[in-house]
Design brief:
Elements (H helix, E strand, L loop, with lengths): L1 E5 L4 E5 L7 E4 L4 E6 L2 E8 L12 H8 L1
Antiparallel strand pairs: 1-2, 2-5, 3-4, 4-5
């Protein structure tokens, strides 16, 4: 898993795998989920800090369960 936050554009990108995205689905105007053939490959959140998604307060708690 790789988490990247772009402070200038307020974009949060979470990649779960390196598998190619075969389908993108928007959930609202600012959340996009990219699906691979195996499941969720990545999540992109626009205006992440403004929407309260960044910083992730409990990141250290979430990482072990994501692995």
């Amino acid at each position: 898993m790789r988490i990247v936050y772009d402070n200038q554009d307020d974009i949060l990108h979470i990649a779960f795998s390196g598998n190619p995205v075969v389908r993108d689905v928007s959930y609202g105007w600012n959340v996009n989920i990219g699906y691979s053939a195996q499941g969720i490959a990545e999540i992109t959140v626009l205006d992440a800090k403004a929407a309260g998604y960044w910083p992730i307060e409990n990141l250290n708690d979430l990482l072990p369960s994501a692995a």
